[in-house]
Amino acid sequence: MCRFLIFKGRDPILLAHLLTRPEHSIINQSYDSRLRIDNRRPINGDGFGVGYYTPEADPELGDGPCVFCATTPAWNNLNLARLAEKTKSSMVFAHVRASTAGVLSETNCHPFTFHSLMFMHNGQIANFHRMKRKLASHMKDEYFLYVQGGTDSEWAFALFLDSLDKLGVDPSKPAGVNGFGHEMIRNAILLTIQYIKDWSKQCSEGDTDNEEPSLLNFAVTDGHSVIVTRYITSRTEEAASLHFSTGSKFIEYEPGQYKMERRDRRQDVILVASEPLTFERSDWVTVPTNSILTINNQTVLLHPIMDEFYQTDPSVPRSSNFAASRGLVSPIVEPQASTNVNLPPLEREGRRRLSITV
Amino acid sequence: MCRFLIFKGRDPILLAHLLTRPEHSIINQSYDSRLRIDNRRPINGDGFGVGYYTPEADPELGDGPCVFCATTPAWNNLNLARLAEKTKSSMVFAHVRASTAGVLSETNCHPFTFHSLMFMHNGQIANFHRMKRKLASHMKDEYFLYVQGGTDSEWAFALFLDSLDKLGVDPSKPAGVNGFGHEMIRNAILLTIQYIKDWSKQCSEGDTDNEEPSLLNFAVTDGHSVIVTRYITSRTEEAASLHFSTGSKFIEYEPGQYKMERRDRRQDVILVASEPLTFERSDWVTVPTNSILTINNQTVLLHPIMDEFYQTDPSVPRSSNFAASRGLVSPIVEPQASTNVNLPPLEREGRRRLSITV
Amino acid sequence: MCRFLIFKGRDPILLAHLLTRPEHSIINQSYDSRLRIDNRRPINGDGFGVGYYTPEADPELGDGPCVFCATTPAWNNLNLARLAEKTKSSMVFAHVRASTAGVLSETNCHPFTFHSLMFMHNGQIANFHRMKRKLASHMKDEYFLYVQGGTDSEWAFALFLDSLDKLGVDPSKPAGVNGFGHEMIRNAILLTIQYIKDWSKQCSEGDTDNEEPSLLNFAVTDGHSVIVTRYITSRTEEAASLHFSTGSKFIEYEPGQYKMERRDRRQDVILVASEPLTFERSDWVTVPTNSILTINNQTVLLHPIMDEFYQTDPSVPRSSNFAASRGLVSPIVEPQASTNVNLPPLEREGRRRLSITV
Amino acid sequence: MCRFLIFKGRDPILLAHLLTRPEHSIINQSYDSRLRIDNRRPINGDGFGVGYYTPEADPELGDGPCVFCATTPAWNNLNLARLAEKTKSSMVFAHVRASTAGVLSETNCHPFTFHSLMFMHNGQIANFHRMKRKLASHMKDEYFLYVQGGTDSEWAFALFLDSLDKLGVDPSKPAGVNGFGHEMIRNAILLTIQYIKDWSKQCSEGDTDNEEPSLLNFAVTDGHSVIVTRYITSRTEEAASLHFSTGSKFIEYEPGQYKMERRDRRQDVILVASEPLTFERSDWVTVPTNSILTINNQTVLLHPIMDEFYQTDPSVPRSSNFAASRGLVSPIVEPQASTNVNLPPLEREGRRRLSITV
């Protein structure tokens, strides 16, 4: 039920171009169902978070991201609307949340941060309550004590930090001017998934009605590299949807309508999102289920995650039933399939958009 | 885009039976679109208010209602969930709000109260900003100063109070043990509508693109009588939808599913709502456009509002286009037209319902 | 820095008489320093909670308390102001919080509840982060999973529930019409303290700068009996302050000024509070450090907690330095020592009190 | 009861140096009474706002300020703590509010903005409710409709905008690259004060108990010039306190302790504040009652406001009783007069400062 968005640009972008102005931003999507399949309700009104790295290298600003989060619906948040118009960044994570677990609280808002690291999750760990104690006893004190809220996602981030630590890296101190390096982050996220799989198996042994898979779309960055997984602990089901788009510029071609401009095959702008943010089908590439996406120096890499849930035969289809039942599937629909395509969602129902001045 | 609900019972009802437990409560409707027409989005996540009179006549409790309101989505409000399980009342107003005007603020939450009076509005005053100054100069100081927020609805309530005053009644002092009497309240609400119509006409004179009608579904009570209008300043359009239901008891026949029990034609329970709260078509009577509903001593009366917008020929149909464009039409749909009818909306999408203990 | 208040009456009291109307309610205290020692700042603006049992035995209302809590300052909470004027109860817990640990979140607001049980804490567990993992591994799953927030107090409540369980009682099912019985609750709270002491000792072994004691003023009720401790893990320091008062009625003798009326030695009203709520010194009895107070059938009992921190020689004084450094000492001051005694705190500084109607 | 702060620098400053890190920032002052006179309570927990202009001239960022405001206490606001560590500006307005009028709502938070203009108020308009209708009928529609909330301060800003308009300037369009010019803004603010004085007089005529003066400390900027008044409608009372400080740098000489560095008489940094932010008495100049301060190109100018309330004889003292009764006097106290000077207010009472990462 959650949605997320990642922006990585050669140049900084005004946050409003990602969050508040596009008709299909994850915020406006959060009350517009058109890009979701029909029988899903579009509510993601339970909280919002955006994290961004400051564009210039200013030692006074530190190397960690700035996070703004709220427990009120994003579409009505005046502070967000104003900050988005006045803030630029070349590395942005944004997350709209529907509370599947954990009460409404700022401590439960994504993205989560730890020094230079930032993390978010789209999906859910199946039967998390059964493995929570294992998690608690597995981790080093500092990551166990890091957890402030009540979500599986925050625990997953703590586990990721502990995994980095177990791989010999201190997550509070990036190794160099380019951060931890994409290999290290990828390894730690794969280790995180491995632990969750193992404990999940141990906890469900013999429990026949415990066949629900975990949906583990994780995104993590150190401000330099970005790693995003599209993963499910199942051989037959699809993971929560994940797409990316690259181009030379993300432009507003008419009010509220954005598209990816692609000149010279440049990847100056990379967007990764739980669902397409534009109507151009060709703008978006679907990340295959159970693979891992890497952004390194404005280049996108895709690797399969080849474990027991990997399907070697590409002709064997996966069902989207489970992910759909969790509101986590977003097929690319044709714009003409919908009426009023050119009317932004608020206007279409006679609501006034937040006006920032006057 | 707003929804409201009125309960008047011979006996007090647990608020949870109205607000949080029914699958089709106005709160759960606020993220379930099934009872709305298809192309409307179901979001009413911008605030919530419930007002209720305490059941016993205890002088220490006073004669005014208690109001609880919130600017966070109702479906996620722990305080509301807990209060609803522990509070009973025989006279309840509830309102779910989508901000068409006025920022998100507790001062903009319905119902509004003034001593023993309580008021809410579903709809909007067309071109309100043009008549705001007229309103300000028309009213007595005490009602002008009553307004704290920025909504047309709160101004309409202040105008209603001023209208009561102009009819010779002090709205801060109910006349007797039975309140102001339903005639007086009805007259004041009709006078309120009259002023709005007049000023609307004056403000739009010559303005050809100012043909948008006002949607004036008002509900007001003094704790004894209830007056509800279904009204639009148009001869050809339908007003925002309004329905009522009467019976001997509002019962939960299976978890989350309620119906009106009707034995012996008793009207021990009266519900008035912007949309039907149960799937039984026969449970609900549609209030005709441009009429006024009165509840007096557990009896429902309907009167037409016979002015220039009244349509004497009942065979002349009104269009529901305008009200629908504002998200204010709620046809009674067949339950079988929808899948998963028996699954409450949160469970259907894998969300956990707020659990109050543990 | 927190404050709490307990009311147990033969008859229900309007919550406003406890919370919002008295000049010295814990809310108004929360920005009036007069009853605190001078160099303490009076801020308890970080959240508020009130829990109350509904007065009548109505099966539909259940046997658990209703809790209303907020993360905004209590003195500005319109919902609280309105509910307090419309709600009566004969068993009330109220808590004003300053965040010594745990971020501002409704999940961190006292009182905490579990079925019929309600709990709050004034003080703090020293070096809680060192024993958190022990707590996590000690408890049964259901109490481990009960914890939603990040405070030592919520963990202490979970430990109390687990202690009840270890004593052979299911905390989700009260034994009879009179609840668990005061002996059982007292034993469970003493066991809770014993665990915290033991783990604290284990965690601090050899750590010379870890001499800070824990302040464990706990209050717990099942709706029938009330148990309150005044306890510190030290032989030389005083615990956080605790007082009680009994009488026939808690009356407002002039606006905003309350006193305990005492006729015929009746104990129709029992108040327990972290600080005196009236200026009458003789109204209040100080609970000795390291003792446990029981309310059973409108009778107050005091027992010493005789462990290694008990001081058998009453002539040996304890220092109030540590508790004072935590803002947890509240000597009974003379009203004449202060100017403007008769002016309520808001009025004294020209602030308007929340007006509920108009 | 409110406090405000203005920063104007040749270079941008990290907001944390103004807002969250200094022991004597207006936020930390808001729960530390030392710099106030003794019998005042230090609460300003009712809301907070900060407005800043983005440092670079980037057309995409527009010429208006960014405003972040909150209705929860500033000292507990995680978003503020994080933004302050990641945001720099050379023109900052900050305001801490205690609600003397107007409910707690984001619409009532200062600073208020209108296109490139930003405004805040420390004080209150006496008997504002009596002149509200005059204000409403005096202003042009667009400024009348600008008002969203319920405070005298927001109305005062609308009146200022209308006054600019009456002086022939469109407040939505700055005249040139240097804004409106300090003369124009000063004239408009003086006209605003004139109107308030006149209406106040008209409204109080013959009302003998209506002798309470208005406290009109206004601050306004267009991003270039800053105008601040210290004004009271009285010949015998002092206005709310106002101070300024200039220097070459505002530096942290030890953790939490700041001072103004002054080399070469440069005015690279200008601070204006309702109370001194450092303990160095010589850092701060008191603005005389009934005068107007101008910042133009890093230069501070002071002019008297010579009207019927001007006291030509400087030897005639004003009383500070009225302003003190409103909590609006802040004498410069000696640091040695207080214990624990070097301990920041949160630490002194054992509270944890908000930790942003980990």
Structural overview:
The structure is a homotetramer of 358-residue chains. By secondary structure, the first copy, chain A, is of the alpha+beta class. Helices cover 22% and strands 25% of the residues of chain A. In chain A, helix 6 packs across helix 7 (182-204).
In short:
The structure is a homotetramer of 358-residue chains. The first copy, chain A, has helices spanning 15-19, 26-29, 78-86, 128-138, 141-144, 152-166, 182-204, 321-325, 345-348, and strands spanning 3-14, 48-52, 66-70, 88-96, 112-114, 117-124, 215-221, 226-230, 243-247, 249-254, 257-261, 269-273, 285-286, 291-296, 299-304.
What is the oligomeric state here? homotetramer
Query: What's the CATH H-level superfamily name of chain A?
Result: Aminohydrolase, N-terminal nucleophile (Ntn) domain
Q: Biggest β-sheet of chain A, characterized?
A: 7 strands, antiparallel
CATH class of chain A: Alpha Beta
Neighbour order of strands in the largest sheet of chain A: 3-2-4-1-12-9-13
The second-level CATH architecture of chain A is: 4-Layer Sandwich
Class computed from helices, strands and strand pairing of chain A = alpha+beta
Q: Name the biggest interface.
A: A-B, 34 and 33 residues
Shape of chain A: globular
| SSE sequence of chain A, one letter per element | EHHEEHEEEHHHHEEEEEEEEEHH
Fraction of residues in helix of chain A: 10-25%
Kindly, what is the distance between the CA atoms of the first and last residues of chain A, rounded to a whole number of angstroms? 35 Å
